[in-house]
Amino acid sequence: MRSRGKFKIINKDRQLVILVLLSLTVLAIFSSACSLSSSREININGETKSADLSESLSTMTPTTQPAVADLPTETPIATLTSTPTKIPPPKRCNTPMSLMLHSDFGAERMEALAGVIEENNLITITYRDLYGEYFFQGECPPKEALLVSLDDPKPNDLLPVFRDMIQVFIEHDMVLTVGVITREPHDPEVWEYLNAIQEQGFDLASHTVNHADLLTLDEDEIQFELEESYTHICDHTEECPLILILPMGNGSEDDDVLRIAKEVGYLGIVSVSKGEIYFGDSIPHIFKRGFPDMESQDETLVNLRLVFQNW
Ligand SMILES: [Zn+2]
């Protein structure tokens, strides 16, 4: 009886030990899954950054860090974050001049635009450059910076005019951001092309899956448009998009759009009329854009300087 009783006790102990081990394993799996889902890594010009900007910013903004004297002596500061970045982002910057182009602009005007850019000593940058070369270096872009974006190429049907327009910029050693509509089916050859220009310094932004006006969609549909297009670009190229270009420029004041964009991993949203200034700690940043003049590219620059007159 005693031995049976002892056995029973041992068995109970074993059950207890197994139960504890099982709980610990489940906890470990759960916590690693949580940490995976809460911090996505993004690639900015070859450097890997945490896309969880709230975490990154808290490590970059000195005011939000606990004073060294307040920290327990055995806590090394380096372990406060997995991706320590020493340079705090700028508190606020003027949005650089930004020009929105579509296929109707065409390669000929693109050539004229490139000439005006050169004559005026402007520097073309992409939104990825805005983050990689300036924001994450603690700087605002210079006054000569010009963001050019080309909207609406689709991986299922890339119109030849897009390639012609992009080719003009390649020949002038200039860069732009391509706003891709990622509706399926996809032609692998187009992704190959998009990868090739990405390698040359062009940036790929999401212009959603279906180019629907986000203000007409419910929360689930907005989630789909923002997340699915993000995933398409991540899956088919080397870099996940940093930027969401709003279809028709609508949604920059919609709480659902802003919240979901941030959750998905976008750092910035490109609007039309909103976003003359962006604040370092307010993600997603909102950037306004200007329109081209279809007659004269000198006039395009005059208009841009008017629209971005906060410089
Ligand atoms: Zn569009």
Describe the structure.
- The protein is α/β, with parallel strands linked by helices and 311 residues long.
- The chain has two domains: 1-38; 93-307, Glycoside hydrolase/deacetylase (TIM Barrel), CATH 3.20.20.
- 42% of the residues lie in helices and 15% in strands.
- The chain has nine helices and twelve strands.
- Strands 4, 5, 6, 7 and 8 form a five-stranded parallel sheet that branches. A three-stranded parallel sheet has the order 9-10-12, with helices on one face. Strands 1-2 form a two-stranded antiparallel sheet.
- The longest helix is centred in the first third of the chain and has 37 residues, at 2-38.
- It starts with a helix and ends with a helix.
- It binds zinc ion.
- Zinc ion (ZN) binds at residues 151-152, 207, 211, 247.
